[in-house]
Design goal:
alpha/beta; 5-stranded parallel sheet; globular
């Protein structure tokens, strides 16, 4: 183990945070210009009232996505990772031209995001799109700015269960302590979004124990009639690592009981357990 990993491990143990290099090609905020709402919503946005499930990794989001996708009015494809879609001017002349049209890079990226999601929605034949990419928790402000009419549903699970599942998803890549610290980044981001945005919170434990009741509540929030087919959702079209849950459990097509919460909650998860109403 290098000194950098030892330092990061110690930092995670005592603070719940880790140092991370910017991803290759990641745009700095200053390069984007002002992140702002669409100047002309009627022409700048094709997507109407999109739904974003804001959730941590390994929180049962693929199950909720599959259940929502089974609704006749909701199209919930695999994780879309739109926040990583970027644009560039290429030349100074292109930048000047876009400036004259009133666009900075953030504006152009929002147009791209909206077009990609709208195309996917049109192909589905349904009226509303649902995106449940966990990393969206880190970009909730920008998503809310891009689509002022967006609706948000929050999904949480016992933090110890999230951390254990995150470790088991790739035990060769991270220790249990590192998994807990990394998963905590997502959980803290979700909590910040819950404090900033309106929308109901679904508990994974309730979703699996009483799926009809939980999905009825979500449908009520979205202004849709509940449909029985949401419970036996069928096999998701895309089951692939990196785009959601790929295990046999989700592939079964029916709601499975939640696993028992692991005994012994890592100390760094104590505050988020308290914030979410789980006993550490």
């Amino acid at each position: 183990m290098t000194w950098q990993r030892r330092f990061n491990k110690a930092l995670a143990r005592y603070t719940g945070y880790q140092l991370k290099r910017p991803e290759k090609g990641e745009t700095r905020p200053a390069e984007l210009g002002t992140v702002r709402q669409p100047a002309h919503p009627g022409t700048d946005r094709l997507l109407v009232a999109p739904v974003f499930v804001i959730c941590p990794v390994r929180s049962g989001s693929t199950l909720l996505r599959a259940m929502l996708n089974a609704h006749s009015q909701l199209h919930a494809p695999h994780e879309l990772h739109i926040r990583r879609l970027t644009v560039g001017f290429g030349t100074r002349l292109a930048q000047h031209a876009m400036t004259e049209l009133g666009h900075n890079r953030a504006d152009l990226e929002h147009l791209l995001w909206d077009r990609v999601l709208h195309r996917e929605l049109v192909r589905s034949g349904k009226p509303y799109l649902v995106d449940k990419t966990p990393a969206n928790a880190f970009a909730y402000r920008r998503i809310a700015t891009c689509w002022p009419d967006a609706r948000f549903v929050f999904l949480v699970r016992h933090p110890a269960a999230i951390a254990a599942s995150w470790y088991e998803a790739a035990p060769e890549r991270r220790t249990r302590e590192e998994a807990a610290a990394d998963a905590l980044r997502y959980m803290n981001a979700v909590q910040r979004a819950r404090e900033a945005l309106p929308g109901p919170t679904v508990r994974y434990e309730h979703l699996t124990a009483a799926p009809e009741r939980a999905t009825r509540a979500v449908c009520g929030f979205l202004g849709l009639a509940w449909e029985p087919g949401m419970i036996e959702y069928g096999r998701p079209e895309v089951i692939r690592k990196g785009l959601g849950d790929w295990t046999d459990k989700i592939a079964s097509g029916v709601v499975q009981p939640a696993r028992e919460t692991p005994s012994g909650t890592p100390e760094i998860l104590g505050p988020i357990c308290e914030a979410w109403g789980y006993t550490p």
